[in-house]
Design brief:
By secondary structure, this protein is mainly alpha-helical. It contains one helix and no strands. This is Heme exporter protein D.
């Protein structure tokens, strides 16, 4: 039995959270961009 903490568990978890948050922010940005483009096109009377 080891008494020392295994830091790799926390390193892997932090990378997973970081990558997940980055992907979520990219998806949110793309959705927001598409909505803004649709509002712009509607205001210009194109659609």
């Amino acid at each position: 039995m080891r008494e020392a903490m295994d830091a790799w568990t926390f390193v892997i978890a932090s990378y997973a959270v970081g990558v997940g948050a980055t992907l979520a922010m990219i998806a949110w940005s793309l959705i927001s961009m598409k909505r803004a483009e649709a509002r712009r096109d509607k205001a210009r009377g194109q659609r």
